[in-house]
Structure to design on (218 residues):
């Protein structure tokens, strides 16, 4: 399967654009955002676990990165409530489940082989920093080489400078509406912009986004 697999092109999936697709495990469904491969794939997805559902024990041959959007996601290492960001490095493994049900945003098989850091950050407890312009608050989540990952909260009426994406940019809108000159992106929208693309983002009503930059190459 190839879905939004040309990383030189802009990709956009709004909440109603992508259906929920059953996984091999009962109670686990996926909204696929980009994908190269079949069941074992380089993939970006939103995954929904019903209450008391689980996924088979598996390894992460290219690493796993996820953000818990709703509920509590769990594995044998602990429980991860909504707002938790986790990176499981290449070669790690787990058997995930959810007692009460949850939704996560997950990226698979996308790690640099040298990026072996295990990360767990509860954004509800972490310290947020001032952003580059008034109205922005930033929570850095991870950095390796040119890749940077963060949560960014935009106050209503915030505008950012026009800028170019060296290494591309990927955004998941978590709350509110993110905007630029190309359109409006409500909560649940996923946007991927290629290397050297440009835009001038803003948010009239305010928003919260997950953003990754510098990871798409040229």
């Amino acid at each position: 399967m190839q879905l939004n697999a040309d990383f030189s092109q802009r990709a956009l999936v709004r909440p109603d654009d992508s259906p929920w697709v059953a996984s091999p495990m009962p109670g686990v469904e996926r909204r696929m955002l980009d994908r190269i491969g079949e069941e074992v794939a380089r993939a970006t997805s939103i995954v929904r676990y019903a209450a008391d559902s689980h996924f088979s024990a598996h390894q992460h041959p290219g690493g796993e990165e996820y953000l818990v959007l709703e509920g509590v996601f769990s594995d044998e290492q602990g429980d991860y409530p909504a707002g938790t960001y986790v990176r499981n490095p290449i070669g790690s493994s787990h058997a995930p489940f959810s007692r009460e049900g949850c939704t996560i945003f997950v990226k698979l098989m996308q790690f640099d082989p040298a990026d072996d850091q295990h990360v767990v950050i509860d954004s509800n407890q972490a310290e947020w920093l001032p952003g580059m312009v008034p109205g922005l608050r930033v929570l850095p989540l991870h950095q390796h080489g040119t890749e940077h990952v963060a949560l960014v909260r935009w106050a209503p009426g915030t505008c950012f400078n026009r800028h170019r994406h060296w290494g591309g940019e990927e955004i998941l809108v978590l709350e509110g509406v993110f905007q630029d000159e190309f359109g409006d992106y409500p909560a649940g929208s996923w946007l991927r912009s290629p290397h050297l693309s440009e835009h001038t983002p803003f948010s009239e009503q305010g928003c919260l986004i997950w953003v990754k930059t510098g990871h798409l190459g040229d």
User: Anything to note?
Assistant: Residues 2-9+19-122 form a domain with the Jelly Rolls fold (CATH 2.60.120.10).
